[in-house]
Amino acid sequence: MIVTERHNNGVALITLDRPAARNALSFALLEALREALHAAEDARCVVLAANGPAFSAGHDLRELTAARAEADGGRAFYARTMALCSQVMQRVVNHPVPVIAAVEGIATAAGCQLVASCDLAVATPQSRFCTPGVDIALFCSTPAVAVARAIPRKAAMEMLLTGRWVHAEEARALGLINRIAEDARAEALTLAGSIAARSAVTVRMGKRGFNAQCGLPLAEAYDAASAVMVENMMAADAEEGIGAFLGKRAPVWQDR
């Protein structure tokens, strides 16, 4: 259901492995992904990929439909599923290291939400994205949280209200993805390797500070960012990096 690999450069590759179900996010797969993300907190960067023709087709509609047979019509299971999915998406956003999506194939509904939640994303020229819940009278309300934070508001609303497909080039123009490559996984791993070669303490501090200031008014954002800069300046790696730059030599990171 989940395959995890560790590369020598500190990159963790987490792969959704439910290809026959188009990597639909069942309750069990969401639990496994949450645990895999937790286990990768000591990595230097994470790549999130998927096996098969789809990155993820979103929630497992067969599982959700089966829950209607329960005494409460499925309400309790739906609440648990949505809460777990929200936890996983927030785990991606708040993960201590950058998480990069490698999208090969489609990413729809909660699958698109997962891509939007990642810090960076690479897709193939054939990749497509959509939030098609409106087509089955199930508006993509939770995917909207991530998508609306990744792309402009009106573009997000158009995706949500029409369920239309967004192709890779448009997704890049909107800011949903960063790069397009024939081999998205290889490109994502190369990008992750570049990040992993930087000071780990700086990357972790930078991601945390970036996310914190994004939700603040301008003056408070500058206050928060300034505090992070001071903390960063006190790190051993910042002293080493500045010294190496001034001395015109390669830095040697201590990751502290």
UniProtKB/TrEMBL annotation:
Name the coiled-coil region(s).
none
Q: Which UniProt keywords apply?
A: Fatty acid metabolism, Lipid metabolism, Lyase, Transit peptide
A molecular-function term among this protein's GO annotations = enoyl-CoA hydratase activity
Question: Which superkingdom is the protein from?
Answer: Bacteria
CDD domains (alphabetical) = crotonase-like (cd06558)
Q: What does this protein do?
A: May play a role in fatty acid biosynthesis and insulin sensitivity.
As for family, the record states: Belongs to the enoyl-CoA hydratase/isomerase family.
Record-given protein name: Enoyl-CoA hydratase domain-containing protein 3, mitochondrial
Species this chain originates from: Sediminicoccus rosea
